[in-house]
């Protein structure tokens, strides 16, 4: 029976450090019901009523299912985030390192992801989310396979 040393330097280098990252959310107030209050951190844009997304500082994205651009926004979110909960009116997704890596692996660029989030969001996309997206997508395509002796 073989045993693998998961603490070796070689195995640590094989997995990108971004793979284990989560969005950091500090300083958010929680009300008496356990709900997070983002009102002070997320001011609405002037044309917020025509936009379907809320992008929270903790990486959760909320989609209004009754929006005229719902289908477009849903297709985009399915490509970049993992679904958490999808009741009738508001769907919840979560940005993760793996979902973002999957997004760039199917051809989305980092700039496309951040640009579309900005266009669809009712509020400005938090800087921490932009940094997280860049961190998780920057390493895609950096591995090269080299054959020796046609093997």
Automatic annotation (TrEMBL):
This is Helicase XPB/Ssl2 N-terminal domain-containing protein. It comes from the Eukaryota. One of its GO terms (cellular component) is nucleotide-excision repair factor 3 complex. GO terms for biological process: transcription initiation at RNA polymerase II promoter. Pfam families: Helicase_C_3. Residues 1-34 are annotated as: Disordered. Residues 1-12, 22-34 have a biased composition (Basic and acidic residues). PANTHER family: GENERAL TRANSCRIPTION AND DNA REPAIR FACTOR IIH HELICASE SUBUNIT XPB (PTHR11274:SF0), RAD25/XP-B DNA REPAIR HELICASE (PTHR11274). Residues 53-150 form the Helicase XPB/Ssl2 N-terminal domain. Keywords: ATP-binding, Helicase, Hydrolase, Nucleotide-binding. GO terms for molecular function: 3'-5' DNA helicase activity; ATP binding; hydrolase activity.
């Amino acid at each position: 029976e073989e045993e693998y040393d998961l603490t070796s330097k070689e195995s640590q280098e094989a997995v990108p450090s971004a793979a284990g990252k989560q969005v950091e959310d500090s300083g958010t107030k929680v009300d008496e019901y356990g709900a997070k209050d983002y009102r002070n951190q997320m001011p609405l844009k002037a044309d917020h009523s025509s936009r379907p997304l809320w992008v929270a500082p903790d990486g959760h994205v909320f989609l209004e299912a009754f929006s005229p651009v719902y289908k477009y926004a849903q297709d985009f979110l399915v490509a970049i985030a993992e679904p958490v909960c999808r009741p009738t009116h508001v769907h919840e997704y979560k940005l993760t390192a793996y979902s973002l890596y999957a997004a760039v692996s199917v051809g989305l660029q980092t700039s496309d992801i951040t640009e579309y989030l900005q266009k669809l969001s009712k509020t400005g996309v938090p800087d921490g989310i932009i940094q997280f997206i860049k961190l998780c997508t920057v390493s895609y395509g950096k591995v090269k396979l080299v054959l020796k002796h046609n093997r």
